[in-house]
Structure formats: structure tokens, C-alpha cells
TrEMBL record:
Protein name in UniProt: SNTX thioredoxin-like domain-containing protein
One Pfam family linked to the record: Stonustoxin_helical
Domain SNTX MACPF/CDC-like per the UniProt entry, residue ranges: 25-145
Domain named Stonustoxin-like helical: residues: 224-319
Signal peptide span: none
InterPro entries linked: Cytolytic_pore-forming_toxin, SNTX_MACPF/CDC-like_dom, Stonustoxin-like_helical, Thioredoxin_11
Protein species of origin: Astyanax mexicanus
Segments forming domain SNTX thioredoxin-like: 330-459
Length: 587
């Protein structure tokens, strides 16, 4: 009877305080902080044990690889109780022995309390994660020695304030300072933190017994597999929170498929463990069955190296999208091609120029293999099913054949957008995914009056320097077309200036236009006593050469093209302004 056990209990005080720190949330380190045995760890990993209280810490994981974490564990013990051998001999529970519902009896309990303080910090893209982790670790370890000023303010330097939120950090510090008092006041509410077990077979030969225990090496292998899955989950979490994943629907769709099949596999693997672990312990199955489960995993597409490869590729795609959208910052990103139509058909907009990612929609062979693998459910039969993964050609974001053209297009688009910024509300520049197998990677699409006019639009770019020939009062320029786009004629603006005058005030300019994209252009009737500048655009950069010893000519050319955006005449020609920063002196 319980009353008899209580009378003869060996009870003694056992006060002790323990303080530990950890910068890891790995299964191994979490179990170590809680002093979990290998056998209990196997049961937890297999989902056979439901944790509560401070042990819920075992389920507290970082959700993203961008998180930095430090855990402080404060443990305190109060008393120790144990049964004597005399009391053990009096245990007679026929139903327990006959029904074989238990294998061990609790013979001793150590009471106390445990507190886990978990400090998380998400690292920004421009921060050094290792440095943040180091500073956070130092901050948490300083908690036991930190002082609080008389007005309750916390002494923190600027770097510490940057890494830690002073408000929540102050709350944690105040709680830590109060813990000894709080735990002492509630000593009677202390809970078992450690128990000692005694086999029932030592009391009754007919009692149920543990036929065999899971080997430490197999427990370690299970732990490694689950840790690899946990690491993959964190990397997915970081990508799922990225701007690129939220901006482009095709990327988000692939990440969602991965998350769904990954979660389903994790459940299947743990269910297989939960079925086989009790069977091994009861003697109904051998440990080879557990080895079979581990072998099935090692041959599956969910094995660590295959997960890592796909996650790295997905991160590479996200990095490229992030890099290009950052280069084109200020230009709106439309998440799908459907949203492009809302801009194209806007009655207030005549022209839309779209930097298009043309290869975002594709069939992912790895994701297809994951889905097929789950349908086979190998863990049910414990029989490996071969699943092939067709790697195919390099992904668009890893294909060197596409990268050069993509870089060229993004620079052309950026220059074109900058040149036309704020000129009219009728022109819109956007970024969007528009599938086009004929222009893999990225291209520039031109829409006019609700229709796509060019799916590989090439704005004019900076032309080569003109060559110069001086004859008396005439300057003959040998012109060269822009390497991209269609140049249909040139416009030259000029005026007489004083030496050192850039002409940026925009006054007294004269201009002339060629009738076509002719190879030569002659400026005539120039006064040798004057200094001339020719320039186009509000902030010109000057290309200079000498007409005569007493007269410098500063020449700036503006190539024009059929498909740019500023109307120049009734025939539909358009003007595009370019600025040349490569000054050179010709004599």
C-alpha cells in the first residue's frame, strides 16, 4: 500500500544548482542538456515518448538556417527519495505480473526544477552569421554576472544592443535573478527530474522483461538520419522566407511541393521506427529490421546528399533572382505572367517593357522522384524499391550558355529604364516570369497597345567612338551604329562655349538630324575662334577631340532606334539617349 511505502521511504535533501549553455539545437546536444539515456533517446526519436514540461525543449527547433540560437539551462535539485530493498520485497501486484504490462518499477526519484531559456536571433542578409552567433553566445553567458542599475536599467554597449533586444533580454535577466527565490518558494512543487528503475524479473520470474535493448550504434545512426532531415528542414525554412520565394509563384510552388513530400516522408520514417522499436524490445523482431529501415533510407531520394544537392540548386535559383531584382531595384516585380496582363491592358498605359525570367516554369525531375517514392511506401514492406532520378540538362540558372545573354539583357534593361525614368505615365517597366523556350534564361519583352511586339527586344546601347576628320571649318564624323537595337538616324546638338563650360545649363543649343543611319556626318561652318560642344541629354558626359589648336570640339552623339520610346517624328521613329563616360582626345 502507498501509505506503507511512504512510512519507510528513505528521504534526504539534495540541494544542487547546475548551469549549462549550448549554441546548438542538434538532437545530440539537446539530449545531452537533459541527460537523456540512449534507450530513452531511441524512444523519443521513434515517437514512443510524449514530452512535457521543460522536456518540451527537445521539440524546440530553429525554423530557419538563418537563425542564431543560444540556450541557457538552469537546473536545481531539492530532495532524493528511494525505496529500500525491504520495501521492494513487499511489492505484490499480481495483475502487473500476470498481464505483463510493465518491465520495471521506480525505486528512486530525484526532485527539482529545470528552466530552459532559448535566445533566438534571425540574421539579416548583410550580417555575418558567425559573428552574430558569437556575440549572442557571449551575451547569454554574461547573464549570471550582469548587473542591473538602481533604476532597473541594463548596462549594455551598442554592439550588445544591436544583437539583443534590450527589452526581452532584460526580462530574461530579471527572471534569472529571481529563479533561486522562486524555486525555493515552490520547493514543494518540485517535479521528478531523474528516476531509477529496477527490473521486475528480479522480484518475480513471471514478470515481463526487456528481451533486448537497442544498440547504441543503431540509436546513433537513427539520430544522424533525423538530424540530417532537421538540417534540410531549416534550409528550406530560410528559402521559404526569402523575397524571391514570395515574389515568384513558380519558385514558391516548387518549395511547397518539396515541403509537402518532405513532411510526409518524415512522418513515414518515424512511424516505421515506432513500429519496430517495441517489437525489438519485446523479442518479436531482431535489430536487423531496424538496420533494414536505415538501409531503405540510405537508398532513397531523401538521403542527405540528394536533399543537399536539390536545396543548393534551389538556393542558387533564389540567389540569382535576388541578385537580378536587386540590380533592378525600384522596378516592380510581378509574381506571375497573369499579373503582366493587368499592366499591359491598363488603359492608361501604351507601352510596357518587361524584364522576363523565361525559364522559371519547368518540370523538376527530383521532385517527381520524391512523389513516386512516397507512393511506393517501402517502409511498409521493408523492401527497397529502385527509383531513378533523371537529372537532364543543367538548370537554367546554372547553364553557362544562358548567363552571358542574361547579364547583357539586365544591363540593357537597366540603362533603358533609367533613361526613360519619370518621362511619361504611359510607359511602364516591370519584372515578371514570362515563359519562352525560344529565349531561355531571361529576355526583354516589349508590349504596345495591349500586344506583345517583341519577345526579344533589344534597346540601343552605347555605340563605339566616332572617328574624326577635320577639313578647314568642317568636322567630319564617321559614325558607327549601336551594337544592339536598330539605329535609324542620329541627332547632334552643338553650341559655342567658353573653355571649361560643359554646356549642362541647356542654353543656346542648336541641333541637326541625319536622314538615316548614315556612316558619316559633317558639321559645317564652324568658327575657328570658338570652342564648341555637342551634347544630348540633361547630364552629358563628354567625348572630346580637337578641331584646331585654337578650337576644341566636344562631341556627344545620340543614336536613335525604331523601337525605343520617345516619339521623334510622325513616321514613328523614337529617340534613345545614351551617355558615354569614356573621354578621349583626338588631334
Amino acid at each position: 500500500h502507498l501509505s506503507e511505502l511512504v512510512l519507510d521511504l528513505d528521504v534526504r535533501r539534495q540541494p544542487n544548482t547546475d548551469l549549462k549553455f549550448s549554441a546548438s539545437d542538434s538532437l545530440s546536444d539537446q539530449a545531452s542538456l537533459l541527460d537523456v539515456s540512449a534507450s530513452l533517446k531511441a524512444s523519443f526519436l521513434g515517437g514512443l515518448v510524449e514530452v512535457g514540461g521543460s522536456a518540451k525543449y527537445l521539440n524546440d527547433k530553429k525554423s530557419s538556417a538563418n537563425q542564431s540560437r543560444v540556450t541557457m539551462h538552469y537546473g536545481q535539485t531539492t530532495k532524493f527519495e528511494q525505496l529500500t530493498m525491504t520495501q521492494l520485497g513487499k511489492i505484490t501486484y499480481p495483475r502487473v505480473f500476470d498481464d505483463k504490462t510493465a518491465t520495471h518499477v521506480v525505486t528512486a526519484v530525484l526532485y527539482g526544477s529545470q528552466v530552459f531559456m532559448v535566445f533566438d536571433r534571425t540574421t539579416a542578409d548583410n550580417e555575418d552569421k558567425q559573428e552574430v552567433e558569437g556575440t549572442l553566445h557571449v551575451m547569454v553567458k554574461k547573464i549570471p554576472s550582469f548587473s542591473i542599475e538602481g533604476d532597473g536599467a541594463l548596462k549594455m554597449n551598442e554592439k550588445e544592443k544591436k544583437v539583443s533586444n534590450p527589452t526581452t533580454y532584460m526580462e530574461a535577466l530579471q527572471l534569472y535573478k529571481k529563479l533561486p527565490t522562486l524555486l525555493k518558494q515552490r520547493e514543494n512543487d518540485a517535479v521528478p527530474v531523474s528516476v531509477w528503475l529496477y527490473p521486475l524479473t528480479q522480484l518475480n520470474d513471471g514478470a515481463a522483461k526487456m528481451e533486448r535493448e537497442i544498440s547504441t550504434s543503431l540509436v546513433s545512426k537513427i539520430e544522424n538520419v533525423l538530424q540530417e532531415l532537421e538540417d534540410a528542414k531549416k534550409k528550406y525554412g530560410a528559402m521559404d522566407r526569402s523575397n524571391a520565394a514570395n515574389r515568384f509563384q513558380d519558385v514558391r510552388k516548387r518549395l511547397k511541393i518539396f515541403h509537402n513530400v518532405f513532411t510526409e516522408y518524415e512522418v513515414m520514417f518515424k512511424k516505421a521506427l515506432s513500429r519496430i522499436l517495441p517489437a525489438i524490445r519485446s523479442g518479436e523482431a531482431t535489430q536487423t529490421k531496424l538496420s533494414d529501415i536505415l538501409n531503405i533510407h540510405s537508398r532513397s531520394p531523401f538521403v542527405a546528399n540528394k536533399l543537399e544537392e536539390w536545396l543548393e540548386n534551389a538556393q542558387g535559383e533564389i540567389n540569382l533572382l535576388s541578385s537580378y531584382t536587386a540590380e533592378l531595384s525600384g522596378i516592380p516585380v510581378l509574381p506571375s505572367s497573369v499579373q503582366v496582363n493587368s499592366v499591359v491592358f491598363d488603359p492608361r498605359v501604351d507601352t510596357v517593357v518587361c524584364f522576363s525570367f523565361t525559364s522559371l516554369k519547368y518540370e523538376d525531375p527530383y521532385l517527381s522522384s520524391l512523389t513516386k517514392y512516397l507512393a511506393a511506401d517501402e517502409f511498409e514492406m521493408l523492401t527497397p524499391v529502385p527509383i531513378s532520378i533523371d537529372q537532364g540538362s543543367p538548370a537554367w540558372f546554372n547553364n553557362p550558355d544562358f548567363s552571358e545573354k542574361m547579364k547583357e539583357n539586365v544591363l540593357l534593361f537597366k540603362s533603358f529604364a533609367d533613361a526613360n525614368k519619370g518621362k511619361t505615365e504611359q510607359i511602364r517597366f516591370v519584372i515578371a516570369p514570362v515563359s519562352d523556350s525560344s529565349n531561355p534564361g531571361a529576355s526583354i519583352c516589349l508590349y504596345r497597345n495591349g500586344q506583345m511586339k517583341d519577345n526579344n527586344f533589344q534597346p540601343v546601347s552605347k555605340p563605339p567612338k566616332p572617328s574624326v576628320n577635320i577639313q578647314n571649318r568642317d568636322v567630319i564624323l564617321k559614325l558607327q551604329k549601336s551594337p544592339t537595337g536598330e539605329t535609324i538616324r542620329y541627332r547632334v546638338e552643338y553650341r559655342a562655349t567658353q573653355p571649361g563650360d560643359s554646356g549642362a545649363d541647356g542654353k543656346n543649343w542648336e541641333f541637326t538630324e541625319t536622314t538615316d543611319a548614315q556612316e558619316t556626318f559633317t558639321l559645317t561652318g564652324l568658327n575657328l575662334a570658338n570652342h564648341y560642344s555637342t551634347v544630348s541629354g540633361p547630364t552629358p558626359m563628354v567625348l572630346s577631340y580637337t578641331v584646331h589648336k585654337e578650337c576644341d570640339m566636344h562631341c556627344y552623339l545620340t543614336p536613335c532606334q525604331q523601337s525605343s520610346l520617345h516619339p521623334l517624328n510622325r513616321n514613328g521613329a523614337f529617340e534613345y539617349v545614351y551617355f558615354d563616360g569614356h573621354g578621349g582626345l583626338f588631334k
